[in-house]
Amino acid sequence: MSHISAGPVPAPTPDRSPSAPTNPPGTATRKGWFTALLRRLHFFAGLFVGPFILVAAVSGALYAISPSLEKVLYPHELTATSTLASLPLAPQIAAAEAYVRDGATPVAVRPAPEAGATTRVMFADPSLPQSTTRAVFVDPATAAIRGDLPAYGTSGALPLRHWISDLHRSLHLGDVGRWYSELAASWLGIVALAGLGLWIGRFVASRRGRRDLLRPNRSHRGYRRLSSWHSAVGIWVVVGAVFLSATGITWSTFAGAHVADLRSAIGEGTPSLTTSLDGAPAAAGGHAGHGGAASGESAADADPATFDAVLAVARGVNADSGAVEIRPPAAAGKAWVVQEIHRSFPTQVDAVAIDGSTMQVTDRVDFADYPVLAKLSRWGIDLHSGTLFGLANQLVLLALALGIAALVVLGYAMWWTRRPTRGLAAAPARGALRGAPWWGVAAVLAVAVGIGLFLPLVGYTLAAFVVVDVLVGWRARRARLRQSEN
């Protein structure tokens, strides 16, 4: 039978399935060569890559609900004691600096996005991992310190979410571990599309059992029951699986670089904000008595009051979202940056660069001006992360991830059920391309090479599959020849 799966699907056998192929092993009719090829690809990809997809799906299910888990686990840090009007940022930053001590100055500040939320004042800390800051949570109404936690990256993920994210992305193994997630993301879409092709072929050929392809038939037992669940669950998650595969690839090490290069080549890259102040006049003091960081000074010299002044300027330009991040210049000759970080729909990620000595806007980037692919990339990433539509987004992702994990388990259960008394279940017969027309062979080779170049880990593993398959076939033929000679 044909199925949609992230797990292995055993080939039908004549004694157990009415839809089993009648061709001798190693052959395929010209009419059915493509289905035979999809079946073999689906089987081997699911068999060998299934464990990677299963780990990615389970960790992804946890990651999908991690934004909500953060609110449950860190209510004291994330919640203010009152909903009174907020103080200016200056006294809040001063309170955080006094709490941290040692003359530390913030590398970023995230004002309370709404009443009842806390302000985050973030400091560099060499004891923390790369891209991680020390976030001090301040009650905006009283400047009281509410907590002190590591926060990761532009998402501002707190320890629980960061731990789950790192598990999902790299199994806590660093750059090498990211190969696992890229392998899973790259093959997930291929396995799902191959399964979809098999499902469509079976749906077209079947007249009586089409309903069983859309919902599980509980009257079946054994292999047929597993197959029914596999087919029905697969067709409902296939679109989501392809989406997760495509968006996951954009974050990957090798294929992700190819995606970025392609977008840049066609002028669809994400616009970047220019923060250089080259040619801007240096000033001895701050603007309007605010004591801001002049173009010749570093972020360590920034007065806390400058955060208020810079934010006021940004509010009048394009940073009108409640959720923003203010970053002082990282070095002399750089501008202050105010970046919207509102990732829920409608997306607000506008950014503005401001000269701290003159309070003049030196550059701005608006989401409305993003190229189409850049907008789709932003929405895709946020949808994949569960932030675009809030809790509803997270629950859909949770169901989708669990569905993919179930397909892997069902696939292996089907493979195990089909095993003979000794050994393991046989793979679908090889030799599909021998029954294909020349143009079919050429198309398959062209697609395989193209995918292998764009998705390197798919190319390497596919080449390994082919080499192993050829060696196994060669060994089997030699064994048959020896038997015939004897």
UniProtKB/TrEMBL annotation:
Name it: Iron-regulated membrane protein
Q: Where is the chain membrane-spanning?
A: 41-65, 184-205, 226-246, 395-415, 436-454
Supply the PANTHER family for this chain.
IRON-REGULATED INNER MEMBRANE PROTEIN-RELATED, PEPSY DOMAIN-CONTAINING PROTEIN
Residue segments, region Disordered: 1-28, 276-300
UniProt cross-references to InterPro entries, sorted A to Z: PepSY-ass_TM
Q: What Pfam families does the entry give?
A: PepSY_TM
Q: Which UniProt keywords apply?
A: Membrane, Transmembrane, Transmembrane helix
